[in-house]
Amino acid sequence: MNATDDEYWNEKSFEGFSFEDEEKDLNSTIKKIPPECEGIQIGSTKTKLENIESLDTILPKEILDKIFIKRSSEINKTCTTQEKQKNVKSTIENIVMSCTYTLESFQSLEEKIMLLQEALYTEDGNAILTVVIFLTNTLKKSIFHRILRDNPVAASHYVHYLYSKQCINELVDTLEMLGRTKDAMMMLFKFGCRNPQNCLQRFNVCANLADDQYDKQIISQLINLVGKYDMKCTQFASVVTLVSDKCKEHQNINSCRMLANEFNLSSKQLEATLLITFCQLQNWLHVDDMFVNKNWLGKDKLALSLPIGETVKLLHHNGAPSSSLTRYLKLIKDSDERLELAKKFNCHHIIIDDFSSKKDRRGLLVYKSMLQKQTESYFYADTILKSPNIKWKN
Amino acid sequence: MFDKKLLNAFPQISHTNLINILKDLPGPKDLVVEHLLFKPLEIFIDMKSLRLYGVDKVYKLQESINPITNQQCIFLVSSNLAATKIICDLINSCLSISSLAKDIIKVILVPRSLIAIEKQFEEEGVFGYVEIFEFQWDFLHLGDSLLSLELIDFYKNVFVNENQSLLLPVAKALWTAFMVLGFPKTVCINGKFSTAVYKLLNRYFKEKGKPKINNESCFCILDRDFDYASVLLTPCTYASLLDQVVGIQNGIVEIKKNDGTISIKNLCNPDETYEYVKYKQFGDVLNYWKSKSKELQDKLEKSKKLQLDEMKQYVTQELQNVLIAKKNLTFHIDASELVSKVIGDTFIDYITIEKNMLENRNRKENLNSIEDLMAFGKGSASNVLQLICLFSLTQDGFTSIELNNIKIKFLHQFGFQYFETFHVLEKSNLIIKQDNNSILHSNLNKIISINKTKQMMQNMMQKLRIADDSEHCMSAAFGGSYVPAIGKLIEIICKEEMPEEEIIKLLSNYSFQVNDFKTGIKSVYVMVIGGITYAEQAALHFLEKSMNIKIFIFSTNIINGNILINSCL
């Protein structure tokens, strides 16, 4: 340490003497001027002074005292580390306890860092931020940033401060500088969402900042979505809403499917969205088109990735005709589940079929007696009971 | 033993502190209050006392109406930049028209003044025109033994934004509370912010004075992240569901009725009906309304058949009570109807999937169920996010593929603006990613920390037996499927089944710091940094009854699943 210090001062003094040629590079200066030169130069000045009358014989002491200002002990007084620590401690104490304080006197970097450490030690966010703001005002950016990088808690207080002041650009820069690229990207994203009118530019920056392939994909989907929407609204509609709106407008399943494919919307979500929309429109034919395919034998086949129970429940709640419900329920393979749902939604045909498949004539008779007479279901039960093809077990 | 009267000290201390500021500002004055502060203020101060100390008019703080006149004008606002910006704008708009009289603008910041606000006043050029005061209320009593500081946005500020400036007011309030109640000998601390608050509390003890020591009691101070399940699960008691669905703010519920009118009720006011139902299962409460309405109907019917002299007695004595009871009952029936309307269709679905997750059943099926609920539009974005967080918590996090899958589906369903929300949830460890790649990246630190958070929940569930103990009295808060961990902890501390060293060892597993552990604890002061739920309060109430101990619940705020998720938006 001492050696380097000495070197430093030697270099400095050479620099001082060589102002006639500023362009000269430092290394050559050092080499060209041997160390003895310094002695010779100073020596010659000394010789000049020896030949004249001494100062105190020329001037009285009072005047000399005035000329030679004694350095006041207050200025440039170097505190010991302990004293500094004490000052720092009491200042932070004052901040925490809401007493008056002043930070201006802490000019050395050492003291500034001590202040921050002490503030962090108190755990009081306001004390931490007070010191951080002082540091940002009194240190150059690179040092300030280095300190933030070394002290994440201080950094998060500063970041939150910038956020609450809505200083977006500074905030994003700071986050990037701290190596928190993802946070920076997300912050831009957040501000983009808040301000849909000119969000595209921000989203494009986000897409560039994103280092995760998956994040990139999400942002590009959003950019695509924004392009499809007329951005008068203050909120972004979701892909599902977009599909639902399209469905209401055109009532065309294929065009909805195409739109959904653009965003890789899951088939479950697509089907549920269309189902809910057609229910709202009371368009049961389209529901049929969507969910029931005929296989090559002409038999109904379910083309649905949604849980059938929930689907039937939804249709029932929206007042789908009983015939439709019966048709879907028939497609449920599990007989217990099918029967349970049929009972829940009063699909008599299926319940009657269940009795017949179990060859339970008595059960069916009891059930028939509960049905309203002269209804289709009543006649159906009657037909089944009279059918010669069933071998009843009771 | 403990004297309940001591709790009455808190509103009076708050009252006096505010009045003391007004006393320092003599003469007639107008008071401008931020609307969020009205309800908490009403708990300890009324218009009459404000008038007594010279308050002329009370305004609501808003941009559109400028209340500044030649008279002294006091702003009472919470310490956030949005509120104080309005003050700056009001002052500047006055200055643009004419000059402003000296010394008339005072700003009382709740709970404290902040450097950010002082800087704002400076930058907006109003610093010389305002005088800043600080005021914080002490714990507000929200019924039974629930005391909350009702700090606005506390969870968001501290846990999400990692801004620690609200910790000092919390420590200060605790200091006041312990000066009143005495400080327990045994102290258990868990979590980063609790440790910080405890440190600040000790600073207050050192600077401002020490309370007397209570021997047979214990102080538990914990961070909210000790048990997120209690926040994320659907609660089952009346009060907790009311809070989860309708929202209870500062003890007050507002319900919008079908005809568009709003009815407001303060649950802290005496109400026999509420006392009876608040800890009951919601389903049972619905049945109770039938019998209760019949009972009231009978009372009213009876009055019609009274003789004239009986009638007089009835009108003067009983009628008033019957009418109040009727009014209360009507409110609760309306509230229950609203709750049923909102969650009736989905309640069973949610309860079932939550139970499956707690029992660590098939993860694929659980994810599938979440997707189904989402596709059919069952539940709000917040509801589904709660399930996603619960999945992460109970099932040792998501694999990258699982997370990406559910995330994109969620974004398609509810909108891309939630992209950032997922990021915040991941940062707050509410969603944990089991990163398979990190081994390749040989990022050792990362692996260690993930494995630590991973398995935490299942580990804790096994050790504390909180997930599969439907017999436990506290599990009633969650319909039998979960015992809140805070309650379980208190039970372990107070039940003397385990030797002292064992308890300390058990707690140290959860990185608890335990000071001066003593057996024979009769009362517990529990403080939750980040907010407690009404369901936990119910559970602690059950525990109190079954163990015959006293539990005082202190909290920075009340939280529920929706508040938690909204804090991350």
From TrEMBL, chain A:
Its main location: cytoplasm. One of its GO terms (cellular component) is early endosome. PANTHER family: DEFECTIVE SPERMATOGENESIS PROTEIN 39, SPERMATOGENESIS-DEFECTIVE PROTEIN 39 HOMOLOG. The gene is LOC112679817. It comes from the Eukaryota. Keywords: Cytoplasmic vesicle, Endosome. It is found in: Cytoplasmic vesicle; Early endosome; Late endosome. This is Spermatogenesis-defective protein 39 homolog. It comes from Sipha flava. Signal peptide: none annotated.
Automatic annotation (TrEMBL), chain B:
One of its GO terms (biological process) is vesicle-mediated transport. It comes from the Eukaryota. InterPro entries: Sec-1-like_dom1, Sec-1-like_dom3a, Sec1-like, Sec1-like_dom2, Sec1-like_sf, VPS33_dom3b. Pfam families: Sec1. Belongs to the STXBP/unc-18/SEC1 family. This is Vacuolar protein sorting-associated protein 33B. It comes from Sipha flava.
